[in-house]
Specification:
The structure is a homodimer. In chain A, the strands form four sheets. An eight-stranded parallel beta barrel of chain A has the order 1-2-3-4-9-10-11-14. The first copy, chain A, is built from 17 helices and 14 strands. The first copy, chain A, is of the alpha/beta class. Chains A and B meet through α1, α2, α3, α4 and β6 of A and α1, α2, α3, α4 and β6 of B.
Chain lengths: 433, 433
């Protein structure tokens, strides 16, 4: 059997990616339970491993007009809390995983540990945690800080945070603690439930953990960063890495660095999911029409606002240098790995969710392209967003899932393990056994 | 039409009240979504306004044996997070409200405000917040504090906390902010979405609030305390007060003080729900058998452990004085308002969830008794716990709901408003219109 492909559905609880709420075909009702339950059912039927809920705790601002563009264009704003949505989705699915973004900078570790344990129990082990350290000044200002904690310190703090929550998840309740012995009246054996007595530089947490061990004991650790500090953190802790943006060459480089760093840390490398823009149709031209339609409702200014620049304030010919001076330059390099991009190329790239990878065509063409991308970059799977592409998951389930299954690249849902960790590492487990 | 009765279902996400998990008739599967969904359906069918999820963030300890009794007897431990359960219950009910306990001492206000707004949207306005300031040293130790913040300071901090979250809920988005104008591309009008720029003694939060206004804008504020500081806080902020324990005389006193304090604060008095022990059957003897059966699986030592005393360490005849010396004395006074209780009376009282009020008998007898209690104490409704009384909500729906509806004391679910605030204040609204 060929190496299976993995898929994760990337989303945020927003009205739609940037201008997508303007699309007349958009049926996204982002504050309705039934909308999300229907999405979860489709995504499960399409054979995805998980829904991945990204999140930020601030608003994207520009130097020139503050939060104006974000508010006007619904650019990652408003944005709801993914933690409290998951149980309703778990109730209408059987095997789909749910990855929730939460910050080591702003959530108290004791509460976060209990929240994830509760969800891991309620979902029968289908929960993952996208670990972020939060990077927006506008988020810091919501938590009593004048500006964000320094990048390096955020990761030092995050290391201690992980230490605390892992103590709660893994070391507070021994395997033999739970007795549930109605006759003797012992629910749990006090000799096997321990305080963690953590006392460190940033946190002091006594414990014990509030909950008995959950199916996975801890959520599957996801991480999404490309900085050197971030990669080193991922190598130490992550089980899966989500990466958005970057050419094949850049992806190979990231994966290689992750592999080396993981080896040094004595761990097996995290699985890598990369963002890809998919459009599929019965014919190539139908697919291309869908691809071109995508993101057409996103304004140029909101597409670029995440760089911190309000492009309305700059003549077109000075924009690239403004972005290089005031914006983040990393994404400029991401367009095919080149630095000499034109502003139009950069706008196009920003509009399509900032991934230069795409797979557009008939079902067979898309699957071929996915295999090619996977093999060239050394990926494990793909992160696919339907924000700005209404109907994409429905298309996936209708056109791609049958082909993927026929070719042995995707297991039937009934044959998938329930626990997210087992599912994501299923090929390794198969190799071991 | 007579003044309607209100009912709230009191629970915690635990294996069962103290020893209740030992009861062979207990079907409580406290970490299963389907168990809670079934409970929510029964509670809605019984005509209750809300499910009330109590919570603590530590473990009850005794001076003599620490957490041993809590761990062994599953005494309010383990205990899961109610926030992440609610959406699954909202998905299978239409009108039932959900009150989640959250602490002003440990949850960051910006995150909490977004969490409740998300839930208020997802539930169509059925969410309430039981505001607690958290009082356990064992909780403080989980958040980096050596002991709890001083009682008075906790409430000063809580006042500022309420100020912050109310600014986010009520003043950050104007009523006219939301435009959703696809043609012009204006989702929200930037002129009507404001940072809150809060900068106080305890909190500094810039905003804006992450979410557009939810159906209720803010959760219904519940509070549960009997201390003078707590009552004064409730009079300033609460819309409903939950009180457990206390004789009729004590309840009348609490309600009178609340009324006076509310008047002074220029607010209408919060609705008061009191805990009552219910047992109902086709015949009086069937009901009495159920009442006697309740809590029989709770050990004496765990029933009293919440006082901070391990009674195994004291000869029976010194126990009362040990409780008076080392334990909290308030509950001693609660048994009928007397101080001269025997230790057996106190144990019995502690075993039955510490409420001296009960209504036991045939359906008509129970309803008569509830009206009597309501009128004597000046209550608005009752808080009813089925923990330790398996099948109580089913009994309620079968025996009491039809009688209550026949007598005009309970509206049909279809006639109830959806929003929790409208529902709890329905009689006022009816009076006004």
């Amino acid at each position: 059997m060929p190496k299976p492909l993995h898929f994760s559905a990337f989303t945020m609880i927003t009205p739609g990616a940037d201008g997508a709420w303007r699309d007349p075909e958009n049926t996204r009702d982002y504050l309705s339970l039934s909308y999300w339950q229907q999405q979860a059912r489709v995504i499960e039927a399409a054979g995805f491993d998980a829904m991945f809920f990204a999140d930020i705790l601030g608003v994207f601002e520009t130097r020139e007009s503050g939060i104006e563009l974000s508010v006007r264009d619904a650019h990652v704003f408003p944005l709801a809390d993914p933690f409290v949505l998951v149980s309703a989705l778990a109730a209408v699915t059987e095997k789909l995983g749910f990855v929730v973004t939460a910050s080591t900078t702003y959530e108290p570790p004791f509460l976060l540990a209990r929240r994830f344990s509760t969800l891991d129990h309620l979902t029968d082990g289908r929960i993952g945690w996208n670990i972020v350290t939060s990077y927006l000044d506008s988020a810091a200002a919501n938590f009593g800080l004048r500006e964000q904690v320094d990048h390096t310190e955020r990761y030092v703090r995050a290391d201690e945070y992980i230490d605390v929550v892992e103590k709660l998840w893994l070391r507070s309740w021994d395997d033999e603690a739970l007795r549930k012995d109605a006759t003797s009246g012992v629910y749990a054996d006090p000799a096997h439930v321990h305080p963690i007595d953590h006392s460190g530089k940033y946190f002091s947490v006594r414990g014990p953990h509030s909950l008995e061990p959950s199916p996975q004991r801890k959520p599957v650790f996801f991480q999404a960063t490309a900085s050197a500090t971030g990669l080193s953190f991922a190598a130490r802790h992550a089980e899966a890495v989500y990466t958005q943006g970057g050419s094949i060459t850049q992806l190979r480089d990231v994966i290689e660095r992750l592999r080396t760093a993981s080896e040094e840390a004595g761990r097996s490398a995290p699985k890598v999911f990369a963002g890809v823009n998919i459009a599929v149709g019965r014919t190539g031209s139908e697919a291309r029409a869908k691809a071109e339609r995508a993101h057409q409702f996103k304004s140029e200014e909101s597409a670029l606002a995440w760089n911190g620049i309000d492009i309305r304030q700059y003549p077109r010919d000075t924009l690239l240098s403004a972005l290089q001076t005031f914006g983040t330059t990393r994404p400029l390099r991401s367009v095919d790995g080149r630095l000499d991009v034109t502003i139009q190329e950069y706008i196009d790239y920003s509009r399509t969710r900032r991934s230069p990878l795409s797979a557009v065509g008939t079902p067979d063409e898309v699957v071929d392209r996915l295999i090619e991308l996977r093999d060239e970059a050394g990926l494990d799977g793909f992160s696919i967003s339907a924000d700005g592409r209404p109907g994409l998951y429905e298309d996936f389930a209708e056109y791609l899932t049958p082909v993927l299954r026929e070719r042995g690249l995707l297991a039937e849902t009934a044959d998938q393990p329930t626990r997210l960790r087992d599912r994501i590492r299923a090929d390794e487990i198969a190799l071991q056994s």
